């Protein structure tokens, strides 16, 4: 299937590794030109080198930290200088520290709200006028399956990513007539460094080995395994495609059937 995004310009946040990188690679494989964002210049440069070696969509990178106050302004500048405009925005952020609701101090809430919610919304609002002017755009926001079935010991993530659900649905309704879609992609247990970190934290909390924790979690997944970054990236590329023009305001779970909700 031709996804119809060859030559489209995509900004992919938090794409030095993991889920963001998976989406960036999938978009580039379809011929899109991608701008990778992250805190490690060396890692981003290596990622771009690998993507560009495939000879399809071009990749470039810019250092960016969602925790910094000037993040939005720096991204807007980078989009203009390196891409010459924007067609696709992939909002992706790192996850907050594990913990219960009682661990959610005011300082933690404020810190992670800034990086996971406020700057995502502000950047989207800043780039939307370009998409409206050209009559085409894609906004894809990566969250977590925890927004449909809260995940134990991830109270901060469940809370802050949940806030993006109402925002995305409202946004989708407002911009649909301008040829712009806004969707959310919800990962379950995809094998990334983040999963390694969470499994390690849960093993410590439960007094078990990481292998025991991992085996127990796999038992809860009907597919009987963890997902791959490539599978996740492919789903993201589809939602950013011309083929998905009539899909907006939706949440797509990539979780092997783990969530028990509809």
TrEMBL record:
Gene3D superfamilies: NAD(P)-binding Rossmann-like Domain. Its EC number is 1.1.1.100. Keywords: Oxidoreductase. InterPro entries: NAD(P)-bd_dom_sf (IPR036291), SDR (IPR050259), SDR_fam (IPR002347). Pfam families: adh_short_C2. GO terms for molecular function: 3-oxoacyl-[acyl-carrier-protein] reductase (NADPH) activity. The keyword Oxidoreductase applies. The keyword Oxidoreductase applies. CDD domains: BKR_like_SDR_like. This is 3-oxoacyl-[acyl-carrier protein] reductase. Belongs to the short-chain dehydrogenases/reductases (SDR) family. Transmembrane segments: none annotated. It comes from the Bacteria. It is an enzyme of class 1 (oxidoreductase).
